[in-house]
């Protein structure tokens, strides 16, 4: 079965006559020169199965995780396009929180995806809810907090709830991005994504394959090849060079001064940061420093403590490390080499953040298997003082 699936992925774009199925009412055919490969089962392709499930509902709701990233946005946007074109039903694409990184904000401003940021959800019997780029049983999305049971989950993360029975589930941890999965649905249904959605998809896959998370399946490569022909490289370049506020550079300088190295593991704790993007970006930067192979970066942003973990290939699973570190304090998850988490409401008293820093350091080092190791600053106090 696995070999057959891999062969189908490898043949996503191939030489020869295109293989097509009848289009559903409302679907639009993409470029007739696009060559198709469809993984068939007795009930049709994965997109056929999803559309059949969703056809029972009057309206549909696509829910991304909180603070949606490019992968969640592009994956949800492709689903929005699929439903609009093939079912013609009212559909909303929503997420909680806010768009936090400068590049992500710039992407939304330039591409105008049909997303809504809301604080709560209301369930109705005639609404079908789809989770994208997140899963049931996790606390980082509105569906769990509203107590809604989704009819479908589409994701590329593993969190231990993959065997829960749903009307439709497509969880592929081996692919680089959830946007790859939903783009393949458009391809199966012969739907042209358009320049902006294609650009968002390319950027989503790029962001999901940074650092050591750089494995592309045959399906990822095929989606990238297809979308590259449609996307706008000038928009991609503009997104990747998004303007940064002056405060960002202050956060960056303080982060470098605050980083402590324990052997091949680093810990950076900022008692206050102006923007959430600094947490992941500092972690991305520090894990490239020799001899560091494992990083935890944390910063208080607003009332919450946000965390990002990074590991080099072969060192450890970042998602498991951050979950172990945050057990009983907050929630986290992610991928083998890139993960994130949050501890809410850490500003409730003046001393709590300081106590939390000590506890996180102890837990992180224990999770990484580091005992009795004296830490040293990435940049010594003497060097800092000499350059003031």
Task: Please sum up the structure shown.
With 388 residues, the protein is α/β, with parallel strands linked by helices. It contains 14 helices and 13 strands.
Q: What labels describe this entry?
A:
single chain, 388 residues, 13 strands, globular
Task: Write a structural description.
With 388 residues, the chain is α/β, with parallel strands linked by helices. Helix content is 38%, strand content 17%. The protein is built from 14 helices and 13 strands. Helix 3 runs antiparallel to helix 7, helix 6 packs across helix 8 and helix 7 crosses helix 9. The N terminus is likely disordered.
Overall morphology: globular
Strand-residue fraction?
15-25%
Number of strands: 13
Report the uncertain regions: 1-39
Query: What is the tally of helical segments?
Result: 14
Please compute the radius of gyration using only Cα atoms: 22 Å
**Mean pLDDT across residues:** 85
Going by helix content, strand content and strand pairing, the class is alpha/beta
Share of residues in helices: 25-40%
**C-alpha end-to-end distance:** 63 Å
Order of helices and strands: HHEHEHEEHEEHHHHHEEHEEHEEHEH
Strand order of the largest sheet: 11-12-10-9-8-7-13
